[in-house]
Fold this protein.
Amino acid sequence: MAQGTAVMGTDIERLSLNQDARAMIARAREEGIETVWDRLAAQQPQCGYCALGISCRNCSMGPCRVDPFGEGPQKGVCGADADVIVARNLGRTIAAGASAHSDHGRDILEVFAELAGGVTEGYAIRDEAKLRALAEEWGVESDGLEPAEIAQELADLMMEDYGTRRSRLGFAARAPQQRTELWDKLGITPRGIDRESVEMLHRTHMGVDNDYVNTLLHGLRTSLSDGWGGSMIATELSDVMFGTPQPVVSKVNLGVLKPECVNIALHGHNPVLSDVILQASADPELVQLAKEKGAAGINLVGLCCTGNELQMRKGIPMAGNHLMQELVLLTGALDAMIVDYQCIMPSVVDVAKCFHTVIISTADKAKFTGATHISFDPHRALAIGKDIVRRGVEAYANRNPERVRIPDEAVEMMAGFSVEAILGALGGTPEPLVEAIKAGKIRGAVGVVGCNNPKVQQDYGHVRLTQRLIENDILVLVTGCSAIANGKAGQMMPASAKLAGPGLREVCESLGIPPVLHMGSCVDNVRILVLAAALAKFLGVDISQLPLAGAAPEWYSEKAVSIGTYVVASGIFTVLGVQPAIFGSRNVVKLLAEGLDDVVGAKFAVEADPEKAAALICRHIEAKREALGLEHRDRGPVLASAA
Ligand code: BF8
Ligand code: SF4
């Protein structure tokens, strides 16, 4: 028995870096509750053709597959070869990811327009200065206008960016001139946000775009319509409506759950929902109801990107990232999980059935069989928000205290580094950051972003890569589930500066900031683009000349593919930790991992080992420094010994 337990323990340790996750996975096994890791194991061996990207079911002459060993068929029924099939599949993946972000952006834009029209409940313009700055950027004459009037005009202009009437998206003008000229030259300047994804679906229909290079170029354009379009609208309008993030200290991991309180988790992405739920959870009547049921109060916690949105703006504690969504239910302490859309596993409904937890879906476009659906309507947002919170309070009465297990103590993390906050900390201009980079105290900056994936030990990719980068004096910018991983690992407090190399440590300590800056949710990756553009413009160079890189060590989603692609198309070298489904075409791999450098000044690399990924990135950053005429380390990075 003891031996059996030890073997199981070792196995569980391989699944996650964290104590809280390990304890809950052990509980799932004890109680026979299925989790994502069990289902991954049950799927083995996964389809090799699909993993290589050389299967196609785009029409009913198929499905088809190309033999990667060259012995079987090399073409689908229509004649498409591996290059065409891989490019088409990748193109569709980018379009799906771009569509997810952009539709999220549209939902925010529609509420923003209705707020301007005075027909919503529970929303306000919380950052009027940002509204006025955006109005100026978009050519709206705002002098003498009320905020609602400005918002109406701005909303109309932004709505048009979803259509096809212009030749260039409004926010594309934020990129340095060198970059926009390059996009024009390549014919990949993003036009309408919807248009590029629709065109990608058209091109990848049988018999349309049969040239893999041409398809992939449109893939770049489609991703740019996300990064400089849909996601950027989502981020900027969220700031206007919910407040531009400023540094705030909060807590993270399953230890944020409180046994004595009604615990409600918000999971998903759109702050249009979560902000109102936060307001509703403070309602005195509901707090009183919670007390009548025997609870000390209502404890709201976040998961995934909605958790980031709430944490960076309101300091709400964070229960965990992607792979914690089932495990948070296994605590037995969660009374309600409120979801909107994206990255919410259908399985949460099944796990919740093993406890008293209610799952409440809210978006009509994202229903979950077996969940309670309460249709969210911004016109009556607060009333609906209160109804939803009430369900959570009522569920608390069904909680069995004997089944509650909260596995760990919460860890402190600092969030809220919007571009405005970073520039504010620097005295309003990028100059101090540029000077620190020039002096070599900070070698460069890297966006470490993206998901968890059960194929990778949870959080190991993020935490180890980040650790190596900061040790090498590279400032790390994090978003999405990566930010939560780094938070749990204790890398995101000002005191974490001691984990950094001497140069970065000195800069962080003088500014009182962590060496790993939380820039928000996944749509907020655009904040990294905006910061990169500001640095490039300040120096009079293109983004591709800066000592920057991107990394997605544990990515899983189509959205992450779109993000990685727009980051590269914007000129930033990007390392993926999980293989994308492209390796069935040598030509596509060669183009993305080599040729793209000559086209957009950046390329992809795939490296599963974060130690090696760190070395690749350090070398890249030193090469960029050298090309800019800055002091550089010839012998590559001095990597610290394994901790
Ligand atoms: O958009 S990082 S697992 S939660 S896709 Fe999803 Fe990935 Fe997390 Fe947010 Ni982003
Ligand atoms: Fe097969 Fe071509 Fe149809 Fe794809 S599009 S399923 S490769 S026939």
